[in-house]
Amino acid sequence: MSASPATPGSRVTVTTLARKKADGEPIVMVTAYDYPGARAAEAAGVDAVLVGDSGAMTVLGYDSTVPVSVEEMLMLTAAVRRGLTTPLLVADLPFGSYEASDEQAVRTAQRFVKEAGCDAVKVERGGTTADRARAIVAAGIPVMGHVGLTPQSVGALGGYRAQGRTAVAARDVHDAAIALQEAGCFALVLEAFPSEATAAIMPALSLPVIGIGAGSATDGQVLVFHDLLGINDGHQARFVKRYAELGAAITAGIAAYADEVRTGAYPAPEHGYAMAPGEAERLRAMLTDPGGI
Ligand code: KIV
């Protein structure tokens, strides 16, 4: 069954996503990091928007997701909130802002809801993260889990590489997913995981699973805004499909502008403002003979 676009005006909730999974309707999620990105996602009718900590790299220029701060993520999330009405808004809790204790996790999640207006938060990995997820859920905030390739632990994982390529490794990802499900997560992101392994673990997962590089057996897909629109240069993960080449279009647009400024073609008369009739002559007279008028 193909997805029907989210209906403008009727807000997508965690219940909507559960219903879509039950009905076999694919869930569409995209990342966004600012107001125009949110407006575009809203107009395109996606179900959910993730203010991913990938924003650390795509819009803040860090070389991984690890350095991004709570304050930076709050600013990005609040900008997306201002541009979004219908899709569910989920924000990543950044590395170091939720792992230490349940109290830290709840306090940080509350800031994202109170100060940035997001509907849900996302946390990475199983293990103790499942305890943190349970505490945030108990505090009344919906939590999305994230397993498979979890970029916040890129050091421990030995780089940005697919996870679960052996049966034992795939079972570990399965166990992490189950732990997050049992902790009360309303949905899960499954990243960079072999398609056969996804198909094998899906029957055990009753919550909506949104894949990125995890094949087609998931309940939905998510892609990073800058990847799918071709804004990024540099390394591109195998799972990225580019639906536009905006990076090249943006550079061409700025280069054309620069060229026209240098040749004098811009601004043309139609880009300027006019004075009321006779006022230009009066002004010139005033300036040539300040005491004369
Ligand atoms: O930060 C992010 O953009 C993400 C997606 C890749 C799911 O976590």
- The top-level CATH class of the largest domain is Alpha Beta
Order of helices and strands: HEHEHHEHEHEHHEHEEHHH
Record field, number of beta strands: 8
Find the structural class using helix and strand composition: alpha/beta
Q: What oligomeric arrangement do these chains adopt? A: single chain
Shape verdict: elongated
Note the beta-strand portion. 5-15%
Provide a compact summary of the structure.
By secondary structure, this protein is α/β, with parallel strands linked by helices. Helices cover 42% and strands 13% of the residues. It is built from 12 helices and 8 strands.
Fold and architecture overview:
By secondary structure, the protein is an alpha/beta fold. It has 2 domains: about 15-245, TIM Barrel; about 250-290, no CATH class. The chain contains 12 helices and 8 strands. The chain has an 8-stranded parallel barrel with strand order 1-2-3-4-5-6-7-8, surrounded by 6 helices. β3, α5 and β4 (about 120-125) form a beta-alpha-beta unit. The protein is elongated and about 90 Å long. The mean pLDDT is about 95. 3-methyl-2-oxobutanoic acid binds near residues 31, 52 and 53.
